[in-house]
Amino acid sequence: MSTPPQWVQALRPSGPQGHELLAQERAKSTINVDQLSTFLFTKTGLERKQRILKILESEKVFDKSQNYFSGRVDRFERALARSKRLRQLAQEHGFSQDDMMVANDIVSEPGPYGLHESMFLLTLRDQGTPEQHEKFLKPALEYRYIGCYAQTELGHGSNVRGLETTATWNQEDKTFTIHSPSLTASKWWIGSLGRTANHAVVMAQLIVNGKNRGPHPFVVQIRDLETHELLENVYAGDIGPKFGYNTMDNGFLLFNKVKVPHISMLARFSSVAPSSGEYIQPKSASLVYGSMTWVRSTIVLQAGSVLARGVTIATRYCSIRRQFQDRDAPEWEKGENQVINYTTVQIRLLPLLATTFALHFTGSAMMAMYTASMEKMRSGTGGGGMLADLHATSCGLKSLASHTAAEGLEVCRRACGGHGYSSFSGIGPFYADYLPTVTWEGDNYMLTQQVARYLLKTARAVLSGKAKKNQNDTVDILMNYLARQDQGCAFDILGNDSDIVAAFAWRSAFLTFDALKRRDEQKRSWNSLLVDFYRLSRAHSQYFIVKNFHDTLTQPNFKNLDASTRELLHDLFRLYALNTLEQEGSEFYTSAAVTVRQIQLTRSTAIMALLEKVRPHAVALVDAWAFSDFQLDSSLGRADGKVYEDMFRCATTLNPLNKVTVDPYPDSKVLFRKVDGVVKGKL
Amino acid sequence: MSTPPQWVQALRPSGPQGHELLAQERAKSTINVDQLSTFLFTKTGLERKQRILKILESEKVFDKSQNYFSGRVDRFERALARSKRLRQLAQEHGFSQDDMMVANDIVSEPGPYGLHESMFLLTLRDQGTPEQHEKFLKPALEYRYIGCYAQTELGHGSNVRGLETTATWNQEDKTFTIHSPSLTASKWWIGSLGRTANHAVVMAQLIVNGKNRGPHPFVVQIRDLETHELLENVYAGDIGPKFGYNTMDNGFLLFNKVKVPHISMLARFSSVAPSSGEYIQPKSASLVYGSMTWVRSTIVLQAGSVLARGVTIATRYCSIRRQFQDRDAPEWEKGENQVINYTTVQIRLLPLLATTFALHFTGSAMMAMYTASMEKMRSGTGGGGMLADLHATSCGLKSLASHTAAEGLEVCRRACGGHGYSSFSGIGPFYADYLPTVTWEGDNYMLTQQVARYLLKTARAVLSGKAKKNQNDTVDILMNYLARQDQGCAFDILGNDSDIVAAFAWRSAFLTFDALKRRDEQKRSWNSLLVDFYRLSRAHSQYFIVKNFHDTLTQPNFKNLDASTRELLHDLFRLYALNTLEQEGSEFYTSAAVTVRQIQLTRSTAIMALLEKVRPHAVALVDAWAFSDFQLDSSLGRADGKVYEDMFRCATTLNPLNKVTVDPYPDSKVLFRKVDGVVKGKL
User: Is some CB atom of chain B closer than 8 A to the CB atom of A422?
Assistant: First the structure.
């Protein structure tokens, strides 16, 4: 398709222009955007974003304009080119770990080095001996070994103990035989494995002297370092297209009795003595739990920012898009209404806007708690109880936060009306890439059992008097509930912020003891309680988020913010908490944490009033998240508001389908008559 | 990638095989699957499916195996080929309208003739005069004119009165000038327009003698019938890639003062007198309302079947997938548990299974009511009140049903665990194609205002004594509520099915009068009530679905089913109704339709018991939906249960990425060393 004719180029959007509307919105708000950004990300963090952005923006390979048009193979090829270039840049500029995280955020696309740079290196580092670091980690850090982490199998996901791949110790030649006994034993979904990796960390059942010692990690070469072809008796490849993540080569992997040397088993925690063939047991697993807690805290923190992308795009676009006049508006108020003024749009977007802050503060708090308790443990001054609490809590929070972010992105996409469906909205493809987060690092349903198990255990300890006050927060809220249970509670959720937190704590404690009764007294089966456990985990996680949001607003550095910004954050706290309370109303009144009348008032008055208070600051609040246009890659979410001009530009200048002239008649066998001006079928 | 080596080909899934597990499931159920299928679709309907399937399956062009791999242009090209072939087959075999619908269902992909075959032909037929039928409809039926329906604009969606495109009457030469005054006036999202159509029905503001008469339809040629190039002063093209629907060329369209003759304005309802330039007003719009009601009823009916695809796939796969042992299972019960046995899976899938039947019965009932009242109106024996009621109700139902189907598909996808994310699951791409349904034919939020407006109006009529008993169902439930309001209700929802229906009616009536009070007495603004209206519409629609499900079970032909099948359908009715009631618990107890205790019992006992009763029949119930494997196109949902074999086959034999050998090292500029054995970059 050629350049649009002159008369088309002369056209402008009608009515108030997008940039004017956004300028109006920004002028209307009294909050200090830069100050809030700094509060969220620190000055160093913001400077880092700017610095990395500048480097990436100037590299043609990171240009995003053709992302949505290509087929799978071309997209993968470009992603590989980007991964390579990013690695080169990281070396040139000496990127730190934090720099790399920011860079990946800006590129916003899973790449073929993804699993090499995360789980492969991490596992080698954490589970390898010094000798293995020399042999495997060193070439891996130099990208001579490029690896992946092969755990999940075609027939086995969540249940690691059910893995079928075996590693059998051969005493005679001091090797392990890696073998896939069935089709369902095939490794599956393994990122970076399909085409890229030449090594894999393979989780396999260790069999020593005929005895199964459970899953252990083995480093196995799978492709030739020169030709990159598969080694003998190894069969691996890409598993095919997915709902998203198509720039990543998730792969499958099968072994036909492949022998590897003794050093291949990562031996920091457990090992096989080469001389005797004796199996040496692993010590405590607490370090592993620690790193899982860390990973889950990252997911919670990221969930805030993932959701904030969608909210930024939708909030800006809904401030520019105008539909209908207000039905009650006076005659003299001409013109269509910004859709963000409709309460059905506000009720969808503004609680999500509040949620972005809630998740961000909770993720940050979790990391701080984690670091603090690790410190305490290292210095021998306790911290164990707190860490155990955080570990369990992190399971529930991972489940809730990733669910909230995924659902929220889709709500944002739909709030953009028809245009939300266009790839140029920038939400759909990003949502599709984010979705696996609800499944990995523990399936969101599976994980909630961990939380319930911990809460039941803690409740038993509280009832039996074994738990001590101040041991951790969960113990405290359970004790508090027991102490006040008979006199009941009368939380002033509409007048007092601390009472909101207390109401969430009350409901969580109520559900814990309720579940305990069913399990321990009524002897209900575990399976029949899973739905209750899911609800319990959600309730407890919501309590944790509400509590951390509230705590953030009482921290010393919060006072540095301007008064109007502080007040608005308090409103966002109430909006998040009360909206959640309203949606879970049924659980709040059955636990007697609040009355039916309070829920009705929350619904019909309090939330509506908060929407009205937050509305004028919506654009300023999303500005504080400080996303660059380059990162958002969205016509609808542009900071300059040139929505329609950009939609039109993308459709006309970037779209290869417009280079095709079709033959539209059913009886003609010709499909494309011309492609890019070249005749393909007869006219 | 070459054929897998011999040792790979010899591998089988471990444990009980998929086909064995499905056979077990089928043996376990006592219901008569064929009988239930016939009850749902009639014998004629089932035979039609079989007949059309046979025709399509034998045509290579409809082979689906490469659907997920190609880029946008290739996918569109193949879709065009399919549309052409389908048209040829329709002529060869003399396909009826119903045959075409079934064929499109089986192909399961939007195609470039989509809008030509629906809205273009429909508008010409319904809104054209006999002269216009001759001039436009005839060549359109012969596919010489290929058209689209151009209403939505870049800046204007739901608000048709806000369209910017103008059609100005020129008395001097008896023509209309079609013009796009701004960029936001560009037609946008118009299916079949981007590359395929040579004509468009253009909705434009009719301006006669300087006076704007509102939007009217004009038939405008946009491309040359020979060369298929754009005509002068017309600028049109494809709007670019979307979240789904990428086999359709949704387009944009701009006019630079294009003159069209008088006959171009579709003149059945309103027109401009060519001699005088006088504008002739349209008569009643009731016929248009009628066809909108029909379209919305179709969406409700389809929503059931759309959701049933996801439920079929997930139910079969969850019966084959096994993870973990049951925690309470005795030691001697070896092996992993089918995931459908976990209550967290059942609570997600089985209520959705019940919902598929609920939506199917409601859609069918709506169509029957529509036909009956049209009959009555034609014969002059009333039916108007019923039709007005159905029109309003259909808005709320379209909103609820499409929302339920879209959300439900995603729930099904996630219930498949990690493999749900693979395109081979068959759910993701289908979900992405279905999503626009929540926006088109009235945005799901916008539409709920129509329902509320109607309910408020009816409530006013009831209060003022103007409404008559038996006028329609809404009047009756409002009257009944008023009559019993003081004495209250005591519905036995856990013991009596009619009482469940009554509880839903009660809540709907309560919310109606509650909203009326706010609007009429408290004089609340329309905008501040939109959220309440949304809830009201949902409540009323849920009532309608519950009522129609219950009615279906009392119809004469229901008695023809075997007793066990009948009992199971009653269980499904209760599962749908009680699960909905539990989720909306808050509204049910504030309306005093039920007590808090009843909701607690529903949650903890009744629903869990229903899950247990339905569980053994899950596979048989989805079998009754009678989807062919060809239509489902899903490795996970295969009727023969060969899930893992098929996942593996697709990944290894269909996947073009596996033909590529990459250069994985960051310092090499070579990306692909070999493609399909041919050297591309130096080794």
Answer: yes
